[in-house]
Amino acid sequence: xxxxxxxxxxxxxxxxxxxxxxxxxxxxDLREAIAEGQFEIYYQPLLDMTxxxxxxxxxxxxxxHPRRGLIPPADFIGLAEDNGLIVPIGEWVMRQACQDxxxxxxxxxxxxxxxxxxxxxxxxxxxxxxxLGAAGLEPHRLELEITEAVLLQDESGVRSTLDGLAxxxxxxxxxxxxxxxxxxxxxxxxxxxxxxxxxxxxxxxxGASDSLSIVQATIQLSQKLGLQITAEGVESQEQLNILxxxxxxxxxxxxxxxxxxxxxxxxLLDHYNSG
Length: 275
Ligand code: C2E
Ligand code: CA
Ligand code: CA
Ligand code: CA
Known about the structure:
Blueprint: H1 2-7, H2 18-36, E1 39-48, E2 53-65, E3 69-71, H3 77-83, H4 86-102, E4 109-113, H5 116-119, H6 124-135, E5 142-147, H7 149-152, H8 158-168, E6 171-177, H9 184-189, E7 194-197, H10 199-203, H11 211-225, E8 228-231, H12 237-246, E9 250-251, E10 260-261, H13 265-273
Parallel strand pairs: 2-4, 4-5, 5-6, 6-7, 7-8, 8-9
Antiparallel strand pairs: 1-2, 1-9, 1-10, 2-3
This protein binds ligand C2E and calcium ion (3 copies).
Organism: Novosphingobium malaysiense
Domain EAL: 23-273
Protein name: Diguanylate cyclase
């Protein structure tokens, strides 16, 4: 592995690492994208099965690259985390999502993904307050989704940041639950309101795997701790039926709807929440 690392130093030699070249090009392009506003948020509904209505939408960023077309977040968020550009991108997403949600009915929330690099900065609380204030959005309508990995990195004042966000009245969800080194004690000692069961477990429901047991245990845990529970990546009626039978009442996935542009949110609300 050390030798591979060393290879990256041969940057200026002929035949240089094309992956590195590509990363540098993408970094340049990302800076341009931030300056020129090439991002768009898609919204995916979370359906509350106890009422049959949409309770919130998750904000999912997309990049309209002028030459490469629509780029999904999986292809650029990792790099943006490494080079810090996730901070301005994440701020844009938060501000835009709050503004969009402020135009929706009062009982509809919005969930925004917050990356570790953002959480480790001292100014996330102030940035969140500003976004809410500028949009005129009530704090309880905003939910921040964080992954558990960041909680392991104790250096950083992550705890006091999360406590401060909770004190604002913002909601906090643990995303991708079960994929990392989850310590159950985190669920108690940090101010979470919700657990999102990772879609890898949902995908295997109905097949021969341990996923059902994991899902059952997670749902029971959420009930014991008084947390809301959501399942992501629900693609079939069978998965939905199993989740509902086990007591998971909030469902997100292609079976309900793919993430849609802002302009299609009203149509979804019309379909699920009218009457
Ligand atoms: P995530 O937070 O776990 O978001 C859920 C992802 O699952 C989304 O992918 C969504 O489109 C996808 N998905 C939803 N339903 C289904 C389904 O039924 N089946 C399958 N196979 N997939 C489904 P997307 O939009 O490509 O985002 C990927 C990841 O990028 C997100 O995973 C999140 O970690 C990250 N991301 C997206 N937007 C942002 C953002 O604004 N900030 C940060 N920091 N990360 C973001
Ligand atoms: Ca998420
Ligand atoms: Ca997730
Ligand atoms: Ca994920």
